[in-house]
Amino acid sequence: MKSKFLILTAFVGCIICTQCDNSKKGISNLQQSGTERLDSAASGTSPHDSLSTDSVIADTASHAAFQTAAEAKSEARLAQDKASAVEEMFEKTSIMMKVRIDSLETSVKDLEKRQAEDEASLSTLVLSFFSLVALALAVLAFLKARNLHLKLKQTIKKQKELFGKIESMDDEIQKMNKSRGKAVEVHWENPSASTPKAELQPPVSSQRRTASPKKAPSAPQITTTTFYAQMALENAFLEDDLEKTRDSYTMVVLQCGSDGKGTFTVNDDPSVQSKLINNASKGFLLVADVIERKSSITHIVNVKPGIIQQNGKKWVIIKKAQVKLE
């Protein structure tokens, strides 16, 4: 505001100086014209005429000076009014500029707020996308695990059916052996009895062996190797996972024959009983059936070994072992 006032004051001073210069020039012109008139009067007028001429010149000069001063005063007022108008215009302009600046600052703040909201929404969108991807992967993993579980259940079911068929075949074979044994006994007690030819064949061959014994061919000797396994994978023991020494992680002891057949039992070492019992659901219960269980379990007792058979690089569980938890 001070700088504006100084500018306006300088502007008014310049105008006043200009008017003063114009007044001086008018006075000098009047004096010059008066001097010329005096010269002309001196050349052919009387002294009385010269006095009247001087008074006229003085009146004219004073009138011109007064008029010039009045004009300068009016011009000064006009300049002051212009300065006031300019100052008012400056104030209005400054107010308008301030309003515009405030509106621009408000607009900038709104833009920054919108940008922050957009960034927040973008981060939320990215987080939602990755959450959906993780959920989809989890669903796929669950479906895959479920399919594997169903396949495993079907495999176990088929193996149980196979075990049932094998047991039924064993029962039939035992019944056939018993019936053949009875037929042989009847034949020896009553040789003249009419018995089927097929049923009489075993005692004939037996009689021949008794009458003329022959040396039976030597069967190949079957060797058995003891291995130790920590776990079973898909109802089988992989040969690459079998160890020849027992340790604290041993779960099953295998007796593998050179003929591709073998048996297995649960590790009954007292030092690992608590560990096996604590991990029973993921350990030996996958390869053994519990036929008796007590409320307070401290050790595992093997009742009947399980049956395994070699198939390539693994020993497949044909029949689970039987244990007691006491």
Question: Can you offer a commentary on this structure?
Answer:
By secondary structure, the chain is α+β, with helices and mostly antiparallel strands. The protein has helices at residues 2-44, 47-189, 197-211, 273-278, and strands spanning 224-229, 236-238, 252-257, 261-266, 288-293, 300-304, 306-311, 314-319, 321-325. It is rod-shaped. The chain starts with a helix and ends with a strand.
Order of helices and strands: HHHEEEEHEEEEE
Q: Note the beta-strand portion.
A: 15-25%
Count all strands and give the number.
9
Determine the structural class based on helices, strands and strand pairing. alpha+beta
- Biggest sheet record: 6 strands, antiparallel
- First-last Cα distance: 104 Å
Mean pLDDT across all amino acids: 78
Overall geometry: rod-shaped
Q: In percent, how helical is the residue content? A: 55-70%
Uncertain stretches of 5 or more adjacent residues = 191-211
Helical segment count: 4
Alpha carbon gyration radius = 65 Å
The gist of it:
This protein has helices spanning 2-44, 47-189, 197-211, 273-278; strands at residues 224-229, 236-238, 252-257, 261-266, 288-293, 300-304, 306-311, 314-319, 321-325. The chain has four helices and nine strands; from the N terminus they run H-H-H-E-E-E-E-H-E-E-E-E-E.
Topology:
Layout: H1 2-44, H2 47-189, H3 197-211, E1 224-229, E2 236-238, E3 252-257, E4 261-266, H4 273-278, E5 288-293, E6 300-304, E7 306-311, E8 314-319, E9 321-325
Parallel strand pairs: 5-9
Antiparallel strand pairs: 1-3, 2-8, 3-4, 4-7, 6-9, 7-8
Helix pairs in contact: 1-2, 2-3
